[in-house]
Amino acid sequence: MTGPGSGLLRDAVPHARGGPGAGGAAVPDRLRAYRDDGPVVLLIGRLGWERPSPPVAVGLSLLLTAVLLAAGAGGWYAAAALAPPLAAGLTGPSARRPLEGRIDWLVPPGLRTIEYGYLAALGFAQGVAAPLVYVLLAVLAYHHYDIVYRTHQGFGAAGPLRRAGLGWDGRMLVAGLAGLAGWAGLSGALPFAYAALAVYLGVLFVGDSVAAWARTVPMSGRGAGRDAVRGGVTGHLEEEEA
Amino acid sequence: MTLAVIIATGRARGGAGPGPAAALPYPGGSAAPGDPDGPPTLLARLCDQLTTLNVPDVHVLGRPDLAPPLRAHGHFVTECADTAADLREIARLARLAWTDGRTLLLLPADLVTADEPLARLLDGAGATGATGQPGAGPPVAALTAPRGRAPARGPAPADRPYGTADARVAGRRIVAAGSADHAVAGPNALTLGALRIGAEQARAAADTAAELAGLVTPETRADAAELLLVGLVRSGTAVAAAPCGGAPCRRAADAAGVRAARSAIEDGDDAGRLAAAVKADDGFVATYAVSSYSPHIVRWAAGRDLTPAAVTGSSLALALLAAMWFSAGTRAGMLTGAVLLYLSFVLDCVDGQLARYTGRASVSGAWLDSVLDRVKEYAVYAGLAAGCAAAGGYVWALAAAALVLQVVRHMMDFSFHARTVPAPARARLTASLMAGDTPCPAVAAHRAPDGSFGLPDPAAPAGPGTPPVRRGGGRAAYWARKALVLPSGERFALIAVTAAVADARVTFIALLAWGAIAAAYTLAGRLDRAVPA
């Protein structure tokens, strides 16, 4: 997913441009990086409509996805395949808006709920091997924790590989299309898509982490200054303070 | 600006003939400022500490027969023949301090202490006093050390450590001061002959010292600093007690005394660093089931030169082993897995403590630790689900649900902490956020002293089991609020216990139920604050 979208995708990861600054200006960028938007959503965002506002768009998408999944379970299988494009269409227009509202911090967890919930429900309902569903979710979880920990701790910006992660919308679209194909008679399309996504994204994300580690550690391991203690290090994000 | 007067009139005991106690060697210390190649002595160390505290202007008083060795070490020494001469010289310097508006610091040359007590004694002038106004504290303060029990009446036993004098402290104020020649009724503290006199009281101190100089007789055994303190207290000057707290602080008269004081300082530094390496706001399990003894492991690992990353890796390996045992699905496998999971969590706490203790905390180490914590947790979920499948059950959907719930909960936290708060509301919001659910060490550290007279007490080390700020309701409520949000220690304990005594289905249902309650609790609290009524 590079090509004409590469400049666009750089916008998708704002901290890759500005650097992981500690100032207030970097904060909305952090939330935007947490969104993990893909090329489709960002392309729609270029239209600049900015409506509905991000939390409203995410809330509506969450509701719509749940309804369509329930309809799919109720017999109208194609309904489930409609959820990814509709969610992307709803959240896309405001994807570039800075997340500064009082409840805008609910946007990233809302998007995670949509993506993970959709992939889990679709996989389990369509008979994808349960461990495979779990592994795909675990790979995505790794990716999303990695985004947070890296931006928070200033440990290496997102590598160029990160742009190939498809975004939440891209991954949902792939799964939805494969589900549609499976329903249309192409048996095995959905399990194959899950396996392919899990392997491809797993290699991509873990490889990106290893590359970042290899870039940074030769300096930090010898106690060099650049990687030495900084404000954010001891203040771990590891724990969930309420 | 401060003017320091070091009284180097004490004689060393034992060893190679009588010499100044100030010239006792302090192994590994620094040389005198005037002679970088000189030997590390007590006096040189004290001068070095004063330089660190931004007090370069040091006057050394010595006896004529003891001054030459000190001069040979590069110190500039003012010779005073006896205690009366000491007092006259102190009076002269106090007048100088008064004229220049400077603080006078009086120290014995054989004082062996960590830096904090000195810094506290020196900074006392800006301390918050009874009125809460900076600078309202008493301008005169004396360093005090804890004293063993003494009979309330009658003469105190003469077993005081070298160089100390009795005192009685009430409300952080020295209400009675003793010396070798003056007894104190009901002493409850020791003074060390270290005094700070603010510029506004320097004139009175100068007069007192001059008056005392006229009263000294050949029979007087007390030294100048002791006498000055007695004189100030008896003349009604308010003298604050500056307690050295837990920090080692003593005077040494011989090489053995220096050794004892030095090892106390180094042990104290080490214990302090170790205590500081433990995170102050951990959950109940991490605090009591791990951090109560993990500093021993940290010290051992530091002695073996283990790196934090190696400990992180061992923790990951143990968690993967636990997942493998869980995946067997047998009772023995579940029990073994639970034990391995606990050990993995212990090492998970140790790696961060080791990094902070050895000063090797790094961005990459923190990142590795955080990411691998999540890998461990979700690998264990998978092992449990696989074990249940091996035993004929099916809990993969529950495992996936537990993973999704945990990721969403974490993402809520991360996003909430990364949000922008509208500028005018920032202070209020942050304060309520901190007070609401998570203790704020910064608030605890900067809390004003209780307003009583005197200097701020040295803060107790925030070690394990010391809840920082509490919202009320006591310790039980504090830990309950922390446990309600299911922090990782509680999560690991929940997994280990339920897996050991029940099965994976119970584990996931417990994780889902507790996690859902935690999510609802935090979400409700944050929305309540984010959306004003």
Describe the fold and architecture.
The complex is a heterodimer of chains A (242) and B (533). Chain A has 242 residues and is mainly alpha-helical. Chain A has helices spanning 6-12, 14-18, 26-35, 39-45, 54-73, 78-91, 107-125, 130-153, 167-183, 189-220, 231-234. The longest helix of chain A is centred in the C-terminal third of the chain and has 32 residues, at 189-220. Chain A is globular. In chain B, helix 12 (363-390) packs antiparallel against helix 13. Chain B is elongated and about 95 Å long. The model of chain B is unreliable at 125-136, 150-156 and 423-470 (pLDDT under 50). In chain B, 53% of the residues lie in helices and 11% in strands. In chain B, strand 2 (58-62), helix 2 (67-72) and strand 3 (77-79) form a beta-alpha-beta unit. Chains A and B meet through helix 3, helix 7, helix 8, helix 10 and helix 11 of A and helix 12, helix 13 and helix 18 of B.
Task: Give a topology summary.
The complex is a heterodimer of chains A (242) and B (533).
Chain A: H1 6-12, H2 14-18, H3 26-35, H4 39-45, H5 54-73, H6 78-91, H7 107-125, H8 130-153, H9 167-183, H10 189-220, H11 231-234
Chain B: E1 2-8, H1 42-52, E2 58-62, H2 67-72, E3 77-79, H3 83-100, E4 103-108, E5 111-113, H4 115-123, E6 140-146, E7 165-170, E8 173-177, E9 189-197, H5 199-215, H6 224-234, E10 239-243, E11 249-251, H7 255-277, H8 284-290, H9 294-303, H10 308-328, H11 331-357, H12 363-390, H13 396-418, H14 426-436, H15 441-446, H16 474-484, H17 488-501, H18 504-530
Parallel strand pairs in B: 1-2, 1-4, 2-3, 6-10
Antiparallel strand pairs in B: 4-9, 5-11, 6-9, 7-8, 7-9
Helix pairs in contact in B: 3-5, 5-6, 7-11, 9-11, 10-11, 10-12, 11-12, 11-17, 12-13, 13-18, 14-18, 17-18
